[in-house]
Structure formats: structure tokens, C-alpha cells
Design a protein that fits this description.
By secondary structure, this protein is an alpha/beta fold. The chain has 6 helices and 7 strands. 35% of the residues lie in helices and 27% in strands. Strands 3-2-1-4-5-7-6 form a 7-stranded mixed beta sheet.
Length: 204
């Protein structure tokens, strides 16, 4: 299991998240980032090239050391400082009210203690800071939801704990955020895996 968790699974996740269909979502989300940025689940650094001049610092949170090693290679080409923390999002090792932007892209589905992680994100954000996100989750159609609920137990076992059926909107709201923008739609692909939530939220 150690070899699978440390080597095979990070490579599989890296390949899935490299999907070119995801690039426009990444670009839109990252374009609004500014100031000191905390990226949750920075992975192999796929988002790093999209950060612009309004960002002065990036802190990347990632529990998988193999992915951090890959992200460091990308970070060497960045114009702003990038630091990495090998930590869980459920215990973010930053002081409160010190982050301008929190970024999540296809991350909330796998965090084991997702509610606690969202509370931590709210804690570290400044009062006028923003949570920027694009996530897949529970669909709006009852038929697709039934498939998501049926598939998720097996899907979690083969995809590193990924949940197909997390209610992203209500989870973010329950953590004390209010939405500036929220859009939902199906991406191309199998509907149980492709219902997308995209937007931004602020501490309520």
C-alpha cells in the first residue's frame, strides 16, 4: 500500500488533472487570485503557470511528498516566491487572517475531514479575502445523484478517496462563507463524474 499511495496514486491523479478540458476552468479561477495565496492540494503544480502579477506569494499545501517534489520544479520558474507545506488541509499551519486568497481546484472531493478543512480555510482568510474554487460534486439531477451515490463507495477505493457526491455548495455555506459567484454545469464526459461547481466566496 505504501508504494501505491506514494508513487502510483500521485501519478494517476497527476494524469487525470492534466486533462486539457480542465485548463479553461483553471485559468478562470486562478485569474482572480491576488496577494498572498494559499493553494489547497497544489499537487504537481498544474495551476502555477496561471498565476499573474497581482499575486505576491504562493503557499502550496499538499500531503503527498512526491507531488510536492514535482511542483517544486515548476515553482523554480515562477516570478513570485512559492513555498510548500506537507500538511493536511484539516490543520493548516498558518496564523488566522493572514491569507488574501484561498484556491481549490478539484480538491475538496478527496479531503478526509472536508468540513474541518473549510473551517480552517475560513480561519486563515482575511475578512475581505476570497475562496476561489472549481470542484466536482453532487449533481442537480436526481437520476445522476442516484448513480453518484451508488458509485462513490467503489470509486473512493480506486481514486484516492475521491467522492462523487459531495454537496459542494452547502458544504461551503455551512463553513461560514457567502458566495460572490456560483455557477454549476456538466463538463463533457460521464455525468456522475462531471458536475462542476465554479465560483468565489468570502468569509460570512
Amino acid at each position: 500500500m505504501g508504494f501505491y499511495n506514494d508513487v502510483i496514486l500521485p501519478r494517476l491523479c497527476h494524469l487525470v488533472m492534466r486533462n486539457r478540458r480542465l485548463v479553461p476552468y483553471r485559468e478562470r479561477v486562478i485569474a482572480s487570485a491576488e496577494g498572498r495565496v494559499l493553494e489547497i492540494g497544489i499537487g504537481s503544480g498544474l495551476n502555477l503557470p496561471f498565476y499573474g502579477p497581482h499575486v505576491r506569494e504562493i503557499v502550496g499545501l499538499e500531503p503527498a511528498p512526491r507531488l510536492i517534489a514535482m511542483a517544486r520544479q515548476v515553482a523554480e520558474r515562477m516570478p513570485m516566491p512559492v513555498t510548500f507545506m506537507e500538511e493536511s488541509a484539516a490543520t493548516i499551519p498558518l496564523d488566522g487572517n493572514t491569507v488574501d486568497t484561498v484556491v481549490m481546484t478539484w480538491t475538496l472531493c478527496t479531503i478526509p475531514q472536508a468540513d474541518r478543512a473549510l473551517s480552517e480555510m475560513r480561519r486563515v482568510l482575511k475578512p475581505n479575502g476570497r475562496l476561489l474554487f472549481v470542484e466536482h460534486g453532487l449533481a442537480s439531477d436526481d437520476g445522476v445523484r442516484r448513480w453518484q451515490n451508488w458509485l462513490t463507495p467503489a470509486w473512493k477505493r480506486i481514486s484516492g478517496g475521491c467522492h462523487l457526491n459531495r454537496p459542494i455548495q452547502s458544504m461551503i455555506e455551512s463553513a461560514g462563507f457567502r458566495f460572490d459567484r456560483l455557477e454549476t454545469a456538466y463538463m463533457p464526459g460521464p455525468k456522475p463524474m462531471s458536475f462542476i461547481y465554479e465560483g468565489s466566496a468570502r468569509p460570512g
